């Protein structure tokens, strides 16, 4: 699909092959294993803990009907997310390639489901998610300066674009810098959670626990709304699967992937439950339901001297989630191009920075376009069901692969009952979405299916006219020279 003349120009073609043995290890172009256990834990925690924990408690309480049940929902969402994360720990140690869900679908269920996952992620789900997080970041940065008035929409979008630009530039510049930034931002966001937990439990020790004393009143509970409480809770745990996108860059993955996943999810679950307990020491359920920014309302009562600091910490928390997404997701595109399901240039690495430059840059215009267009939340609504469907399909593929290839090496193996429970619950969530919101869920399915003709026209058989092929190869060659990128020179999986 690609004219490789430009590869020879940078030493990655036939000339580069003859000289490869003479190169020192530091000169060989490939993605290096630079992510240790601390970076891996920070990567998961930093991606999971975003703006959700500061906003979603309202949705969980509203749909669960009581304080005690809402805390139970938070704990169960953590357990369910842990189940899914353990399944992905098995997948990450069974298949040594990067790429996450794309790789696992390719290896277990075949090329078409894998391509549809790639298609949906890069053109719909990921740009919408990144746009939403960047808007949350800019809102927390800008709105304190305009309170009590609303901040200008144009300014919020401008700051969002600047945040996305910064994160893209960071991930293009250095894998190490992006990883260290993630560690720092994770430390900051966990500090923000500690700032909420400590005064809450001091108040609890002083006897301020009225909402918790009658926590399990279920008069307002309706069974049709309870799944929505879980949906809100699970949203805040999203991102536990992102480490699997960078498997080839993790030091000792057979040890560090399962260990990082277990440590991260246990930590996040404990912190989330404690934060919600702290909220109820300072606010009654009705007061929490009236607040659109629960953390800010809490800070105004428990930490009045830090009322201006909390929005900054929440903004940095969003920035960490944004950075984690831009670090991880391009690796899916990188692997997809390496497998021949995407233009070859996206499987190339910058010869100086050793980063997957084309794959990182592709996300940038799509996110900016969605920010300008403003149709983000609607897109999130009808793409989230597709997200859960592909997660369920991935763990189903794991079970199928276990049955078909029982002797395949699995350094870490999750109990089958955990995988079955998680897969069934994921399909239930998709079915619930189809029942409660058939219009938006149906649109999400249609968006995913638009990738089917693209697959058959460009992947299974490359049927583009010769003139279009010539234009495509010409552009790819010159883009390759402009970005100074070449294919990976050694196998890393």
Automatic annotation (TrEMBL):
The chain crosses the membrane at residues 35-56, 68-92, 104-125, 145-171, 183-205, 225-245, 257-282, 302-329, 355-373, 379-400, 412-435, 441-459. Keywords: Membrane, Transmembrane, Transmembrane helix. It is found in: Membrane. It is a multi-pass membrane protein. InterPro entries: AA/rel_permease1, AminoAcid_Transporter. It comes from the Eukaryota. GO terms for molecular function: L-amino acid transmembrane transporter activity. One of its GO terms (cellular component) is membrane. It holds the Pfam family AA_permease_2. Its main location: membrane. This is Uncharacterized protein. It comes from Anabas testudineus (Climbing perch).
């Amino acid at each position: 699909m690609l004219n490789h003349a430009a590869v020879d120009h940078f030493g990655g073609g036939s000339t580069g092959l003859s000289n490869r043995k003479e190169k020192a290890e530091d000169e060989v172009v490939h993605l290096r294993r630079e992510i240790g256990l601390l970076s891996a834990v920070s990567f998961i925690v930093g991606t999971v803990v975003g703006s959700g924990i500061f906003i979603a408690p309202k949705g969980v309480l509203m749909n669960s009907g009581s304080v005690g049940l809402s805390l139970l929902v938070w704990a169960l969402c953590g357990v369910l997310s842990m189940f899914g994360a353990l399944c992905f720990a098995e997948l990450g140690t069974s298949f040594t390639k990067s790429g996450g869900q794309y790789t696992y679908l390719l290896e277990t269920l075949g090329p078409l489901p894998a391509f549809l996952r790639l298609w949906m992620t890069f053109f719909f789900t990921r740009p919408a998610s990144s746009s939403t997080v960047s808007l949350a970041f800019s809102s927390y940065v800008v709105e304190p300066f305009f309170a009590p008035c609303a901040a200008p929409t144009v300014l919020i979008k401008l700051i969002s674009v600047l945040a996305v630009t910064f994160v893209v530039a960071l991930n293009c510049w250095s894998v190490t810098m992006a990883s260290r930034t993630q560690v720092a931002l994770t430390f900051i966001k966990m500090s923000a959670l500690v700032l909420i937990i400590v005064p809450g439990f001091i108040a609890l020790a002083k006897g301020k626990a009225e909402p918790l004393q009658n926590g399990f009143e279920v008069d307002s509970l309706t069974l049709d709304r309870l799944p929505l409480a879980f949906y809100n809770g699970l949203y805040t745990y999203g991102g536990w699967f992102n480490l699997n996108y960078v498997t080839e860059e993790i030091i000792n993955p057979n040890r560090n992937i399962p260990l990082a996943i277990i440590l991260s999810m246990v930590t996040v679950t404990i912190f989330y439950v404690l934060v919600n307990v702290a909220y109820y020491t300072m606010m009654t359920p009705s007061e929490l339901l009236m607040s659109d920014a629960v953390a800010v309302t809490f800070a105004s009562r428990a930490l009045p001297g830090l009322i201006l600091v909390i929005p900054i910490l929440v903004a940095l928390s969003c920035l960490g989630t944004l950075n984690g997404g831009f670090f991880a997701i391009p690796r899916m595109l990188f692997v997809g191009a390496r497998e021949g399901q995407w233009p070859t240039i996206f499987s190339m690495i910058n010869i100086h920075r050793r980063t997957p430059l084309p794959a990182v840059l592709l996300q940038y215009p799509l996110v900016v376009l969605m920010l300008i267009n403003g149709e983000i939340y609607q897109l999130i609504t009808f793409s989230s069901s597709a997200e859960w469907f592909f997660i369920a399909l991935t763990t189903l593929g794991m079970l199928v692969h276990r049955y078909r290839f029982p002797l395949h090496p699995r350094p870490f193996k999750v109990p089958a009952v955990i995988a079955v429970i998680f897969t069934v619950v994921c399909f239930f969530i998709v079915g619930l979405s189809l029942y409660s919101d058939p219009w938006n869920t149906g649109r999400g399915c249609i968006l995913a299916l638009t990738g089917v003709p693209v697959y058959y026209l460009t992947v299974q058989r490359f049927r583009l006219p010769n003139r279009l092929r010539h234009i495509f190869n010409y552009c790819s060659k010159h883009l390759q020279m402009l970005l100074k990128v070449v294919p990976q020179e050694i196998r890393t999986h």
